[in-house]
Amino acid sequence: MLNNIFRFYYEGFRKMTWGRRLWGIILLKLFIMFAILRLFFFPDLLKRDFDSDEERASHVLEQITNP
Amino acid sequence: MFDSIDMSLVDWSRGQFALTAMFHWIFVPLTLGLSFIVAFMHTIYVRTGDEEWKRITKFWMKLFGINFAIGVATGIILEFEFGTNWSNYSWFVGDIFGAPLAIEGILAFFLESTFIAVMFFGWNKVSKRFHLTASWLTAFGASLSAVWILVANAWMQHPVGTVFNPDTARNEMINFWDVIFSEVAVNKFLHTISSSFLLASIFVIGISAWFLLRKKEVLFAKRSTVIASVFGFITAIATIATGDTSARIVAREQPMKFAAMEALYEGQTHAPLVAIGAMRTDTTNYPNPREEFIFKIEIPNALSYMVFLTPSGFIPGISDLVYGNEEQNFMSYEERIERGAVAIQTLKELKKAKERGDQVSYDALREKFSDPIWIDQYYQHFGFGYYKGRELMELIPNVKLNFYSFHVMVILGGHFLIFTLLVLWLSLKNRWGNHKWLLWVALITMPMPWIASQAGWVLAELGRQPWVVYELMPVITAVTRLKPVAVQLTFWIFLVTFTLLFIAEIRIMLAQIKKGPGGE
Ligand code: HEM
Q1: Is the bond preceding residue B466 a cis peptide, omega within 30 degrees?
Q2: Environment class of B165 (CB within 10 Å of its CB; exposed 0-12, middle 13-18, buried 19+)
Q3: Residues in CB range of A18: below 8 A, 6 or more apart
C-alpha cells in the first residue's frame, strides 16, 4: 500500500513535463518566504522578545493603555 | 504616546499589508472558482466517456495548477506581518486568529496536496470514480480553506462571541458558533465565494473567446463556454443577492462605512441611492473637508428602501454619527471618546492594582469587565478612547475611495449579470462565436471581475478605518512601533517578489494557452 502510494507520486513527478517549472517556482518561493523573509525580516516579535505569556500580556497592556 | 506616533509608520504598515493582501487576492478567487469548473467538466467526462471532455478538463486543470502553484502560500505572508508589524493586534485578537487558523492551514495543506496530486497524476492510474472524487475534494477543500480567514475578518468587522480578558489583554472565544455563524461571517463567506466563482467563469469565457476569435479548437471553446456561462450566470445572481445582503448588514452594523460608501453627510429618511457620481474635495471647510459631487444620478428613496424595505427609513449620515443625533439615538463621537477613555483608564488601573498586589481594587475593577451594563456603557467604546485630543476627522474613513470602490463593484456586478446571461443564451442556441465583437467584449470583460473583487476588499477594509477591530482597536494602537524604514524595505521586497510571481503566472499561463488543449 505505502509502496503503491510512493510509486504513484514518484511516477507522477518523474513524468512531469510543464509542471517541473512550477515546482521550481514553488520551492523558490517557499525558500524566499521561510528562509529569508521569515528568518530575517519577520520575526514573531512577542514570541522573540518575551519568555512567558504573562510578560507578553503585560507588554501589550502597557502599549494599549498609554494613549 | 499615540500623539507622537509616526503616521508614516502606520501608513507604510497599512500599505504593506494592502499590497500583500491584494497580490494574494489575485490568485485566490481564480483557484476557488476554477477548481469547481474543472470538477464539473471532469464529471461530464466521467459520465459521457467523451474524449473531448477529457481534453477540456485537462486543459483547465492545467491552468488551475499554474495558478495554484504560483499563488499557494502567498497568504502566509499576511500571518508573518501580523506577528511583526501588528503585534499588539495579533495578541489582542487572541483565539480568533490563533489555533483555528493554524489547524485550518495544516488541514487544508494536507488535503489539498493529497487530492491535487491525485487530480494531476491520477489519469489512467486510479479508478475514474476515485479520480473524480479527488477533483471534487480539491474544489471543496479550496473553499473550505477560505472559511476561517473570512470568519476572522468578519469578527474584525463585527466582534461577537468573545469576551475581553483584561488580565491577558486578549479576546477569548466564549461561543464558537456565534463567531462562525455570525450573520456577517456567513454572508461574507457567501459573497466572497460566489464572486470568486463568477470571476473564474468569466475567465473561462474570456480565454475560450480567444480561441474562437482565432478559429482554433472551436468545439473545446464552445463547450467550455457553456459550462462557464451556466456557472457564471447562477453565481452572478448569487453575488448580487449576497452583495445586497452585505450592504444591508453594513448599514446596520457599520453605519459609518455605509454613509461613506454613499458619500452621505447628512442623514435623512427617503434617502436616494447614488447610481453614478463623481466627486471632488471641498477644502474650504477646513479642518473638516468634505467630498462634494460634481455630478450624480440618483434613484429616489432607493437607499432607505434597500436597508429598511420602506422609504421612510432613516439613514444616518457622517455628521449624524460624528456629532450625534439624539432623535435617532446616535451618540456623538465626543461622548464615545470620553467613554472609551474611561474604559482604557480602568484597564490601566487594573494593571497597576495587580502589580501593586492591591487585591481589593483589582477585584472591583475586574468585576467591571464582566458587568454587561459597564461593558455596554464603556467598554463598547474602548477604541474611541485613543482619539482623545486627536482630530475627529481621523475617525472618518476615506469617503472617495469607499464611494468609488462600492460603485465600481456594483456597476460591474450588473455588467456581469447581463454578460453571462447573453453568453449563456447565445451558447445554448449555438450562436456564441458568430459575432466577433461579442468575443472581443468577452476578452475585455475578462480582467474586470478582478477589479470588482479587489474593489470589494477595498470597501470592506478601508470602510472599517480607522479600526482594525471594529470600534475596539484602531490602527494606531494595533501597529508595532518599528522604524518606518524597516517597513519600507520589506514593502519594496514584496513589491518586487510579487511582481515577479505575477509575471511568471502570466507568462506560463500564456504559454500553455497558446499550446491549447492539445499540447503537453
Ligand atoms: C451588485 C452587486 C454587489 C453588491 C451590492 C456588493 C456589495 C458588497 C458590500 C456591501 C461589500 C462590503 C462588505 C463588508 O464590508 O463587510 C462587498 C464586499 C466584497 N465584494 Fe461585493 N457587491 C456586489 C458585487 C460584487 C462583485 C461583482 C464582486 C466580484 C466579482 C464582488 C466582490 C466582493 C468582495 C471580494 C468583497 C470583500 C469581501 C466581503 O467583505 O464580502 N462584489 N460587496
Answers
A1: yes
A2: middle
A3: B62, B508, B512, B520
**Distances, alpha carbon B460 to alpha carbons A1, A62, B110, B364, B405, in Å:** 49, 30, 30, 39, 10
Return the amino acid letter for B104. Answer: E
What was the pLDDT predicted at B287?
62
How many Å lie between the alpha carbon of B220 and the closest alpha carbon of chain A? 21
pLDDT at position B25: 96
Measured by CA distance, the residue closest to atom 35 of ligand 1 is B453
Domain that holds residue A23: 2-65
pLDDT tens profile B249-259: 999 999 999 99
- Three-state SS across B46-81? HHHCCHHHHHHHHHHHHHHHHHHHHHCCCCHHHHHH
- H/E stretch holding B471 reads none
Q: Given CB atoms, is A44 within the 8 Å cutoff of chain B?
A: yes
C-alpha cell, B409: 463593484
pLDDT band at A22 (very low <50, low <70, confident <90, very high): confident
Distance CA B458, CA B191 (A): 15
Interval between CA B156 and ligand 1 midpoint (Å): 17
Helix (H, G, I), strand (E, B) or coil at B295: strand
pLDDT band at B505 (very low <50, low <70, confident <90, very high): confident
pLDDT of residue B13: 95
- Tell me the mean pLDDT in the region B364-391: 95
Query: pLDDT at position A2, please?
Result: 79
CB distance B247 to B268 below 8 Å:
no
Cβ–Cβ below 8 Å for B121 and A30 = no
C-alpha cell recorded at residue B229: 456561462
Rounded to whole angstroms, the Cα distance separating B306 from B17 reads: 33
Beta strands in B108-254 (DSSP E): 162-165, 170-173
- What's the total number of domains in chain A? 1
Mean pLDDT score of chain B: 93
| Cβ contact, residue pair A25, B125, below 8 Å | no
Q: Is the ipTM of this complex over 0.90?
A: no
E-assigned strands of B119-206? 162-165, 170-173
